[in-house]
Amino acid sequence: MSREPEHLQRLRARMVERQIMRRGITNRRVLDAMTRVPRHEFLPGHPAEDAYEDGAVAIGHGQTCSQPYVVAYMTNWCDPRPSERALELGTGSGYQAAVLAEICAEVITIERVAALAESARKRLGRLGYHNITVLCRDGYEGYPVAAPYDIILLTAAAPDIPPPLLGQLNDSGRLVAPVGPGPQRVTRYTKQYGSIHRENGLDVRFVPFVSEHFDNDVS
Ligand code: SAH
């Protein structure tokens, strides 16, 4: 990657300090990953500075790249470690996948909109993220051939967790997702000795997880 302008590095450092650390996220791995990933590269068509504002950004096709704090919060709840493998549903721009890939050994990410999957694949390749695989399909069934995963992260809101996903979670694995058709809440499912422990976190607003299995696929 060519060297990026210094003022963007400064804006990103400020984003991490003011939007993420000040709101209580202390996990070094998450803070370092958010400091490294050049968020402006993921948001074409917007002034580079907008990437470091405290909000979600439109990425076309009616979809959004989440607010930096929400990305940090979701990543922190996944508690990613260097040796781990992650599955993301909802690639969008590829930004969240890149944040996970800064920490984990491998990331597989699935996107249902072909144009988004294609541009994310190109972007991630250009930026040198060789540990990310982008697949284009409905992510409802997960990706069983590469299972189990230590982390499964949904970045679109599902009314319920697709049952196949829980089956692809490793023991001690974490599945983090915004759940709910109306008010949504970040929910974490942790697998321990075969049983699932559920915790509720932040209230959020994500675009819907669209699937023929949920009967909300109008395409
Ligand atoms: N993580 C993204 C933002 C996600 S926006 C980023 O960092 O930019 C949510 C994305 O989920 C959208 O791109 C949408 O097309 C995708 N999506 C919705 N339903 C899906 C499904 N069933 N399978 C895969 N992707 C889905």
What does this 3D model show about the protein?
The protein is α/β, with parallel strands linked by helices and 219 residues long. It has a single domain, classed as Rossmann fold, CATH 3.40.50.150. It contains 6 helices and 9 strands; from the N terminus they run H-H-E-E-H-E-H-E-H-E-E-H-E-E-E. The chain is globular, with a radius of gyration of 16 Å. The chain binds S-adenosyl-L-homocysteine. Residues 59, 63-66, 89-90, 92-93, 95-96, 110-113, 116, 138-140, 155-156, 207, 209-211 line the site of S-adenosyl-L-homocysteine (SAH). Residues 59, 63-66, 89-90, 92-93, 95-96, 110-113, 116, 138-140, 155-156, 207, 209-211 line the site of S-adenosyl-L-homocysteine.
Compile the SSE list and pairings.
Blueprint: H1 6-21, H2 28-36, E1 57-60, E2 63-65, H3 68-78, E3 85-89, H4 95-103, E4 106-111, H5 114-126, E5 132-136, E6 149-154, H6 163-167, E7 169-179, E8 184-192, E9 195-204
Helix pairs in contact: 1-3, 2-4
Bound molecules: S-adenosyl-L-homocysteine.
Which descriptors apply to this entry?
alpha/beta; two-stranded antiparallel sheet; 27% strand; Rossmann fold; binds S-adenosyl-L-homocysteine; 6 helices; 219 residues
